[in-house]
């Protein structure tokens, strides 16, 4: 064992420097040179300010905005703070947990109150919390489910909003990978850009 | 055929076709051959040997080999622990993360040196960038390299005749790191950035609307986290976090990277024992077990949670929505992409997650639980999966030998009492740690208090934690509050036992095999490349896993499944 102490020490130091400093710092430099937009978080700018990231969902609650999926993230004290980009996580509620059923029920009630005419079945992704709590997407079905509410709140024609949603549907990547989805932030920004900022919004 | 299965089949086809060239390349590297990377990395390799004061052809017996591995692991333990305890005073800490509590630092250090990467903390609220890079990223490399090194020692034990040396641990570690792990991670990290995974040293970003976005050098760590079957996330939500796993394509390639080296090592094995069919047989057994597990998990998650039916929720998949069980899942991956990940990550010793396993359906959650309990030999961890599977192969030839009344042999080496003892130890120690740890936990009130879900699922949370730690997986039913002194200490012991309690018997076994003469094949030899042997091997893995764990599984996921429709 004693014979191996010197090689162990030097192997550890050298490999640490190589894999723990040279490698990550090298990747940081190359990433900045090759993919600066992505490396910094694919940030979205409006009026010279950073308003978010295209990959990180935000908490939209105004009737004139499309809403994202429920988020179970909390603040530093453990109080609910949806879409907290500094503390990712899911609800970890088991399918058999009555609290999950109750939470889903409450969310459905809230959707029906916000739009009494949306009486159809609610797409499951719109009433269940994502794993990260930062999911930037909803399913196309969940977006279409909200079209009527958004159109009424913004005083727009329903068909116009529906067309805008359809234009924002991204299919599975390469036709097979992942799911069809709509980026909620991009969709809401497109609404703002085309029809003026929603006066009731709370972003 | 559903959408999820199209992705699954593409996955299997790509995995098996990539395993072939990578396996051949690794065989060349590990046998000391030259590759296209040698002109660039060769001088660095030789420089490292000079620094360490060794020659490439210095041989080690099994004890020197085992001590070398153990020494460098414990240096790593000390380094990670010290980094976590002093990070507040060190550079690359723009968020001023404080020093980490002693129990959590110890648990985390053990977790990363044992390739478990169990996380009782959330990365973005706890660790400085320096700790992530110089502490965790380094261990991600070293623990994977260790797995390959131990496998190499075992392979040499099988192939060398009447010898004592098993090769040199330092040479194996350096070669695995320089020629395999580092180049793969390098390319993979840049690919991840191109897909939207972040890589920077900036402070957290405050948007105009008041949202705070965590930042950091994520891609470089995630690349080796995946390739080395480590699984420790840069962020709390692991690969569910969009900055850690952005697009469906990044998800697909990350899933491939979990099983890539473990699958390719079977091919490497075939090359090294000079009989490629032997490698294919092991790969075939793994693939069959994997496909079975994948089918159950995919089916359960795509179907979804019947407890929500009466509420007016649409959970049937269509072109417009993924449906299924979406609690704890990311929309861009859907139930299919999440079930495939969960199966791959627990078949291997990765433990990374792109969805919250705690919220999986009972049967969907049973699959990852059971794959870990099998000892992660279905592909398994880098190196550790194959040496684990070879232990089962020895048991299989032993049982086969008993049936025909001959001394069992594997690849020309007689398998005798000592080998069987070591193989049994390596298989049974983690099993014992799982069951004993779970049994103690359900008796200790402080341990039961950590449970977050009622009913049988609460028991599953405890069982999952011990299965994950003892088998060095690292995924969790994360609702369980594991950052308590009971779990931090208890699971750390289980992780150490699950790593070193397997590595030492495997190396002792290699040390015994290497001394043996080659026994020529005879009529009484059970061939180990046939479909018959593949069947026997699958049977042995299945039986050990079933007999050991079915009672515990019946109390957890099976009971939960049976009660699901009555939830009100």
Q: Could you tell me the radius of gyration of chain B in angstroms?
A: 23 Å
Report the mean per-residue pLDDT of chain B as an integer.
95
| Average residue pLDDT of chain A | 94
What coarse outline of chain B follows from CA principal-axis ratios?
Answer: globular
Q: What is the spatial order of strands in the main beta sheet of chain B?
A: 1-2
* Total helical elements of chain A: 6
Low-confidence stretches of chain A: none
How many DSSP helices of chain B?
18
Low-confidence stretches of chain B: none
Major β-sheet profile of chain B: 2 strands, antiparallel
Q: Which structural class is indicated by helix and strand composition of chain B?
A: mainly alpha
- The succession of helices and strands of chain B, N to C, reads HHHHHHHEEHHHEHHHEEHHHHH
Q: H/E order of the elements of chain A?
A: HHEEHEEHHEEH
Count of distinct strands of chain A: 6
The residue fraction in helices of chain A comes out at 40-55%
What's the layout of helices and strands?
The complex is a heterodimer of chains A (203) and B (568).
Chain A: H1 5-34, H2 36-39, E1 43-46, E2 49-53, H3 98-114, E3 122-123, E4 137-138, H4 140-154, H5 158-167, E5 169-170, E6 181-183, H6 184-195
Antiparallel strand pairs in A: 1-2, 4-6, 5-6
Chain B: H1 3-30, H2 38-52, H3 62-86, H4 102-113, H5 123-126, H6 129-159, H7 169-195, E1 205-206, E2 212-213, H8 218-227, H9 248-272, H10 276-303, E3 313-314, H11 334-347, H12 362-373, H13 384-404, E4 409-410, E5 413-414, H14 417-443, H15 445-448, H16 456-470, H17 485-515, H18 531-563
Antiparallel strand pairs in B: 1-2, 4-5
Helix pairs in contact in B: 1-9, 1-11, 2-7, 3-4, 3-6, 3-17, 4-17, 6-7, 6-8, 6-17, 7-8, 9-10, 9-11, 10-11, 10-12, 10-18, 11-12, 12-16, 12-18, 13-14, 13-18, 14-16, 14-17, 16-17, 16-18
């Amino acid at each position: 064992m004693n014979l191996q102490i010197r090689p162990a020490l030097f192997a550890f130091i050298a490999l640490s420097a190589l894999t723990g400093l040279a490698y990550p710092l090298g990747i940081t430099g190359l990433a900045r040179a090759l993919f600066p937009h992505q490396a910094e978080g694919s940030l979205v700018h409006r009026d010279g300010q950073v308003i978010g990231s295209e990959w990180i969902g935000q908490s939209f609650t105004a009737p004139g905005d499309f809403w994202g999926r429920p988020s179970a993230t909390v603040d530093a004290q453990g109080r609910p703070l949806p879409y907290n980009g500094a503390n990712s996580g899911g609800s970890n509620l088991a399918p058999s947990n009555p609290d999950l059923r109750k939470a889903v029920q409450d969310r459905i009630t809230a959707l029906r109150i916000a739009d009494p005419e949306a009486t159809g079945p609610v797409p499951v992704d719109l009433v269940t919390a994502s794993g990260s709590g930062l999911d930037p997407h909803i399913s196309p079905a969940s977006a279409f489910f909200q079209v009527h509410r958004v159109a009424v709140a913004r005083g727009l024609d329903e068909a116009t909003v529906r067309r805008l949603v359809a234009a924002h549907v991204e299919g599975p990547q390469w036709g097979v990978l992942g799911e069809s989805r709509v980026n909620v932030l991009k969709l809401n920004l497109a609404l703002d850009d085309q029809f003026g900022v929603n006066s009731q919004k709370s972003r | 055929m559903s959408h999820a299965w199209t992705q699954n089949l593409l996955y299997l086809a790509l995995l098996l076709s990539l395993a072939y060239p990578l396996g051949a390349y690794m065989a060349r590297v590990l046998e000391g051959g030259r590759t296209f990377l040698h002109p660039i990395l060769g001088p660095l390799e030789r420089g490292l040997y000079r620094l360490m004061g060794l020659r490439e052809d210095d041989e080690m017996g099994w004890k020197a080999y085992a001590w070398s591995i153990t020494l460098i692991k414990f240096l790593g333990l000390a380094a990670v622990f010290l980094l976590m305890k002093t990070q507040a005073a060190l550079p690359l800490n723009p968020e001023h993360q404080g020093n980490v509590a002693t129990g959590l630092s110890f648990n985390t250090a053990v977790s990363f040196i044992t390739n478990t990467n169990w996380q009782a903390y959330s990365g973005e609220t706890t660790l400085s960038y320096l700790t992530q890079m110089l502490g965790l990223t380094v261990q991600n490399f070293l623990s994977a390299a260790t797995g390959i090194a131990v496998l190499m020692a075992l392979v040499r034990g099988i192939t060398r005749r009447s010898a004592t040396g098993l090769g040199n641990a330092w040479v194996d570690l350096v070669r695995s790191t320089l020629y395999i792990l580092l180049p793969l991670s390098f390319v993979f990290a840049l690919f991840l950035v191109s897909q939207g995974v972040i890589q920077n040293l900036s402070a957290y970003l405050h948007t105009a609307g008041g949202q705070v976005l965590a930042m950091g050098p994520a891609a470089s760590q995630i690349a080796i986290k995946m390739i080395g079957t480590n699984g420790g996330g840069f962020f709390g939500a692991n690969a569910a976090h969009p900055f850690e796993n952005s697009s469906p394509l990044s998800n697909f390639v990350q899933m491939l990277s979990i099983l890539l080296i473990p699958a390719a090592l079977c091919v490497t094995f075939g090359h090294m024992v000079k009989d490629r069919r032997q490698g294919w047989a092991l790969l075939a057994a793994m693939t069959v077990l994997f496909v079975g597990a994948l089918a159950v998990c995919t089916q359960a998650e795509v179907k979804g949670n019947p407890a929500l039916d009466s509420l007016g929720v649409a959970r049937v998949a269509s072109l417009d929505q993924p449906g299924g069980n979406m609690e704890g899942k990311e929309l861009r991956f859907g139930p299919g992409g999440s079930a495939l990940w969960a199966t791959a990550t627990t078949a291997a010793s990765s433990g990374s997650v792109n969805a919250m396993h705690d919220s999986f359906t009972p049967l969907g959650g049973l699959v990852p639980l059971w794959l870990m309990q099998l000892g992660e030999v279905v592909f398994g961890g880098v190196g550790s999966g194959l040496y684990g599977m070879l232990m089962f192969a020895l048991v299989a030839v032993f049982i086969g030998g008993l049936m025909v009344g001959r001394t069992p042999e594997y690849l020309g080496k007689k398998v005798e009492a000592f080998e069987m003892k070591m193989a049994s130890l390596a298989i049974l120690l983690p099993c014992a740690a799982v069951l004993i740890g779970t049994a103690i936990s359900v008796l200790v009130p402080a341990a039961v208090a950590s449970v977050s879900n009622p009913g049988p699922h609460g028991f599953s949370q405890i069982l999952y934690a011990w299965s994950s730690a003892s088998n060095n997986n690292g995924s969790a039913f994360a609702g369980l509050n594991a950052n308590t002194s009971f779990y931090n200490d208890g699971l750390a012991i289980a992780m150490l036992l699950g790593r070193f309690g397997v590595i030492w018997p495997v190396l002792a076994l290699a040390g015994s095999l290497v001394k043996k003469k080659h026994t020529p094949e005879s009529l009484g030899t059970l061939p180990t490349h046939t479909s018959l042997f593949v069947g026997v091997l699958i049977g042995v893995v299945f039986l050990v896993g079933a007999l050991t764990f079915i009672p515990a599984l019946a109390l957890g996921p099976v009971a939960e499944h049976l009660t699901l429709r009555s939830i009100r």
